[in-house]
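Exercise 7 asks you to align residues with C-alpha cells for two separate proteins.
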Amino acid sequence: MDNEHKDAVDRYSDPATSDLMDKLKDAKSTAQLDSYMESINGKYSGKLSEYLRCMMDRKNVDTSWLVKNAYLERTYAYQILNGKRNPTKDKIVMIALALEMSLIETQRALEISHAGILYPKDERDSVLIYAVEHSLNIRDANVLLSKYKMPELQ
C-alpha cells in the first residue's frame, strides 16, 4: 500500500462520525470549536475515489478484482477510482456489494457521492438495504429485485 492510500485508510478509520458529532456538540466555547476544527483539518477530504480505494485496501483487492466482481466496465472503474467520474447510485451499491461493505460504509459512499442514501421507505432501496446487510452478491441482489418486480442493478 503506497503512502497516499495509507493516509486515506488512516483518515477513514479514525473516530466514528458519531464520536466527532459528540465532540462538536459538547464544545462549550469557540476555543473548543477551534480545537475541534484543528483536529479535523484536512483529515476528511470527502472524495469518493479515496473512500473506495480505502475500502479496497481493507479488503486487500485491486482494481481488476473490483472490475470483475462489481461487473464494471474497466475504463469506467478507473475513472471512478481516479475521481474523474461520479458513479450512479446503482454502481455504488454494486461496488459495495462486491466489497462486502457494511450498510454504514455503503451509506457513507452514497453520501460522499451525493447519490442519495438508501432510504428504508423506498421499496427498491429496502431490498438493497437487505442485500447489503446480508452480504448478498450482485447476482443474488438482482434475483431479489426481480422477485419484487423491481429494476435490477446495472
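Second protein for Exercise 7:
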Amino acid sequence: MATIEELAAKVAELEQQMAAITAPPTEYYTSAYSGEEIDAAVKKVSEGLAGGVASFNGRTGAVLPQSGDYNATQIPVSGEPEAETVAAALSNKAPAGFGFGDAIQDIATTSAEESYETYCAKVDAVLDAMPDKTAKLVRAYPPAVYGNAGTTISLLYKGDANYAVLSNIGSADAGLCGWRMFKLRYPSSSSPAVWMPFEWEHPPMKIGVEYRTSERYNGKPVYTKLVDCGAGPSNTRKTVSANTQNVETPISCTGNFGSGTIPYEWFAGDVSGAQAITCTFNGQAIEIAATADYSGWTVFVIVEYTKTTD
C-alpha cells in the first residue's frame, strides 16, 4: 500500500501535467474568412454532397466526366493564344492535314441567256465569305460554257475586296477548259473594282465564234476567230467577210485547206510553175489568193486582232 508521501508525490506530478495542458498557446492562425463565411461555405458543400447534380449534358445519376464535356473556349490558358482563335484554326484545318479542306462549291449559271454581270455577282457572293489572301476550289460554269457536259474544277482566289481571280484548272470536256475571270480596279488604281471581260487561255475555236484570249499584244487583249471561207479560189482572189467589229490592229492570219496549211506554196522543178495559196486580213475581210485551182477544198482561216474598245 502506498504511503502518504508516495501519494503526495503522484498528485504533484499530475498537477504539473495539467498545468502544461492548460498553458495558453504562443502562436495563433488568423483566418481570411469570418466565422459566418466559413459556416456558409461548409453548409453549401454539405448540401451539394447531399443533393448532387440532377443532370449534366443529358446524363443523370452519378455523373462522371466524359470526353467532349468542355470545348477549348471554356478552358482558357493564361499566356497562351485566345482559346477562340485556337478553336477556329482547328475547325478550319484541312482533312488529314492536306488539301483545301472545304467541300467544293458550285457557282453555276442558270441558262445560256444569263448575263455575265449576273454571274459575276454570284462569284462576288462567294468571295464575300472568304478572308483576304485565301483560295478555294469551286465548280464554276459561267454563261460562256453553259450547256457543256462534264465537271470543271476552278480555283477562286481573293486578294482583297478589289482583286480576285477565277481560273479554270481543267475538265474532262475540252469545251470547258482553259478560261479565266479576274477582278481589279479599272481603268486606274484609284477606280472602283470591276470584273474584266471573260477570257480564254485555250479557246475551243468553234467556227464563227469570237474569243477574247489571255494573250496580249502591245498591252491589249488579243481576240481570235475561226472563219469558214467556203471553197477555195481557182487561179484568182476571193474575199470573205470576217464579221469582226472594232478591230484596231490585225495581228495574224493563217488557215488550212484539206491537208494543207495556208500560206502554202508548191512547185516541181521550175519555180515558174509554182502553185500557191495565201490569205490576208485587213480587220474586216479575209482575202484568199491562189495561183492554182483550190476550189475542191474548203478553206478555214484563223485571224487574230486587237480592238479599239479595250
